[in-house]
């Protein structure tokens, strides 16, 4: 059942299942909380209360917002955690990975640990050498085209590249839901606004994080020529001993949707190890 929380600038939609310690799931741009449809049930079965959130401008959240930065998204997520009586483990994908960094740095009492899935958390630069890698070239051109032109077909084409190899069993339905959402007024504008935002605000907060952070990267992520190097750079920018990197072989930019069992296993191991250490 969808619930709604009014925050400064609009309304955030979310859905809660289960009982126990709180885990909040935040998706990437051009998506909705449905991205975690295969992740929520096993986390609930493992004894957690799981809140899947629609980012500002996405899913069932209100469409028209004044800003799209990771800091803005972090404020929304912190409001949800606060409303649900945190603290929480915060899981963020792509742009929300950067937002998770900001949230953890700003409110250490509310975020016990953070999981960043294929995160855009550091300032990025496209190098010509990277474009020699076919998957990067194909993904970058489609991603830029979708953002600049506001093209749904190019976004769908990017998703095809971002999910290399095997697709989820409900792939056609997944694409249909994404396409239907982006047809709604203001939804493509949200994708474009997030695409134009830069991760500098998140990168500036990495050194201020005080909780453990798990970074998960796919070896075939088309957004980076060397996903391992990007994940390592995020971990290295955190205070010593807080970060941990895990690679998922064969995964693209959506490891939680391509390999949900593997991601759930990593999250549960990470959270339980952190709890035991505390």
Automatic annotation (TrEMBL):
Gene3D superfamilies xrefs: alpha/beta hydrolase (3.40.50.1820)
InterPro entries associated with the record: AB_hydrolase_1 (IPR000073), AB_hydrolase_fold (IPR029058), AB_hydrolase_sf (IPR050266), Epox_hydrolase-like (IPR000639)
Keywords per UniProt: Hydrolase
A Pfam family recorded for this sequence: Abhydrolase_6
Gene Ontology molecular function: hydrolase activity
GO CC, one annotated term: membrane
Record has Hydrolase as a keyword: yes
Domain of life from the UniProt record: Bacteria
PANTHER family: HYDROLASE, PUTATIVE (AFU_ORTHOLOGUE AFUA_2G14860)-RELATED, MONOACYLGLYCEROL LIPASE
Protein name: Alpha/beta hydrolase
Organism of this sequence: Streptomyces parvulus
Organism lineage: Bacteria, Bacillati, Actinomycetota, Actinomycetes, Kitasatosporales
């Amino acid at each position: 059942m969808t619930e709604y929380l009014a925050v400064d600038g609009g309304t955030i939609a979310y859905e809660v299942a289960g009982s126990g310690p709180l885990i909040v799931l935040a998706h990437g741009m051009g998506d909705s909380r449905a991205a975690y449809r295969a992740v929520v049930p096993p986390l609930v079965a493992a004894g957690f209360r799981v809140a899947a959130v629609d980012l500002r401008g996405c899913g069932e959240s209100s469409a028209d917002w004044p800003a799209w930065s990771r800091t803005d998204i972090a404020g929304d997520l912190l409001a949800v955690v606060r409303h649900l009586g945190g603290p929480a483990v915060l899981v963020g994908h792509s742009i929300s990975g950067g937002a998770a960094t900001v949230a953890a740095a700003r409110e250490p009492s509310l975020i016990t640990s953070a999981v960043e899935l294929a995160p855009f958390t550091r300032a990025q630069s496209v190098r010509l050498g990277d474009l020699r890698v076919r998957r990067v070239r194909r993904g970058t051109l489609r991603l830029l085209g979708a953002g600049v032109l506001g093209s749904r077909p190019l976004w769908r084409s990017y998703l095809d590249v971002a999910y290399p190899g095997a697709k989820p069993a409900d792939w056609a339905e997944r694409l249909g839901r994404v396409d239907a959402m982006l047809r709604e007024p203001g939804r493509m504008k949200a994708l474009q606004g997030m695409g134009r935002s830069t991760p500098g605000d998140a990168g500036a907060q990495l050194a201020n994080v005080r909780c453990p952070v798990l970074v998960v990267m796919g070896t075939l992520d088309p957004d980076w020529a060397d996903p391992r190097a990007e994940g390592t750079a995020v971990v290295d920018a955190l205070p010593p001993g807080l970060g941990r990197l895990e690679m998922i072989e064969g995964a693209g930019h959506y490891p939680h949707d391509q390999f949900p069992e593997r991601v759930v296993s990593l999250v549960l191991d990470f959270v339980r190890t952190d709890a035991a250490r505390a």
